[in-house]
Design a protein that fits this description.
This protein is an alpha+beta fold and about 300 residues long. It is about 40% helix and about 30% strand. It folds into four domains: about 70 residues, Arc Repressor Mutant, subunit A (Orthogonal Bundle); about 50 residues, no CATH class; about 90 residues, SH3 type barrels (Roll); about 60 residues, 2-Layer Sandwich (Alpha-Beta Plaits), CATH 3.30.70. A hairpin with a 7-residue loop joins strand 5 and strand 6. Helix 2 crosses helix 3 and helix 4 runs antiparallel to helix 5. It is elongated.
């Protein structure tokens, strides 16, 4: 409960309502707080003065009256808070990805839904509660937020890391690596890094399989920085298999060429004749071979 006689508590509550996208009415707030409408107007004026001062520091929020909504709302010229539709979309993506262990996932979902204004919060919670209850985490059961942050800082600082890594076959390996990017694909986060002894093309490590990570304090400069752009690399490493860059040409006669173009962002249609498409795509490693093979007689490889 808000201490209605405490002006500071009243102002904080009003600011929180505005900050979460709520439209406030002077009359309604006067009834809630047990004060006069004039008192609420003075409170709004004080909040406006506070925001005007904050605008000098780069936060340019203003409180404006909306005739259409018959109330006051916070308008930000630099950014807006997430609305309930955006929060729902993010929650759905997190749940579907299955990337996080339950504790980390639920903490994020709770914070996201708490950012909804009260009238939308219950709706969002009701929509996702079934998926949240039946959420099936991945078998590795690793907390990932801390290592993802540490790896991101190492990438930013261009710091060489010493990692102890467990391969899929259970074999342990230790490497000194130069981290350059973090990617996400089909349930897992991956670290893209150049091994100290290999600089021709990067190696891909699944983050949950990194058992230990030590900061060496040594930094590196990437002479290949001009040719490594994680956005461009991401288009060519759809299958998270390391290896040299390859150019593959094939025909596709299936029902949805759009699905092929979505799966292979570098794919380009060269020709189309009677529903048969000739396509060329670039990809790192052997993963593309496995995917092409999985398409059965809908795909015929022309040049590999």
């Amino acid at each position: 409960m808000i201490d209605t006689e405490n002006k500071g508590a009243r102002l904080l509550d009003m600011y929180e309502r505005l900050n979460h996208g709520e439209v406030i009415s002077k009359k309604e707030l006067a009834e809630i707080y047990g004060v006069t409408v004039k008192t609420i107007q003075r409170d709004i004026d004080e909040l406006r003065a506070y925001l005007a001062e904050k605008s000098l520091q780069g936060d340019r929020g203003t409180i404006e009256y909306s005739p259409a909504k018959k109330g006051y709302r916070l308008i930000r010229s630099t950014y807006e808070h997430l609305n309930h539709k955006e929060i729902l979309a993010l929650a759905k993506i997190l749940l579907e990805s299955r990337a996080l262990e339950p504790g980390e996932l639920h903490t994020i979902l709770d914070k996201l839904t708490a950012a909804c204004i009260e009238k939308d919060r219950t709706t969002v919670e009701d929509i996702i509660k079934n998926e949240t209850f039946y959420y099936v985490p991945l078998h590795h059961k690793k907390k990932l937020l801390d290592p993802l942050w540490d790896l991101s800082l190492a990438i930013q600082k261009q710091e060489i890391l010493h990692i102890r890594y467990i391969r899929q076959d259970g074999v342990e390996r230790q490497h000194d690596v130069k981290p350059v990017a973090i990617l996400f694909s089909e349930f897992y986060f991956y670290l893209v890094a150049f091994k100290e002894e290999e600089t021709e093309f990067p190696t891909i490590f699944r983050v949950d399989r990194i058992e230990e990570m030590e900061h060496t304090g040594k930094t590196f400069h990437i002479p290949y920085a001009d040719r490594f752009k994680d956005g461009e690399f991401r288009k060519r490493v759809q299958f998270m298999y390391p290896g040299p860059l390859r150019r593959v040409k094939f025909t596709y006669s299936g029902p949805s060429v759009e699905a092929v173009l979505d799966r292979l962002p570098t794919a380009k249609i060269l020709t189309e004749k009677e529903g048969v498409y000739t396509i060329v795509a670039e990809a790192y490693g052997i993963g593309i071979d496995m995917w092409l093979g999985s398409q059965g007689d809908k795909v015929k490889v022309l040049k590999n």
